[in-house]
Amino acid sequence: MDIVVRREGALYVAEWGIGQRRCAVGQSGIGEKLREGDGLTPMGCWPLRRVLYRPDRMEAPATGLAVAIISPDDAWCDVPDDPNYNRLVKLPYPSGDERLWREDSLYDLIVVVGFNDSPVLPGRGSAIFLHVARPDYEPTQGCVAFLRDDLIAAVAQLTPMDRLIVTP
Question: Cα 147–153–158 angle (5° rounding)?
Answer without folding.
Answer: 120
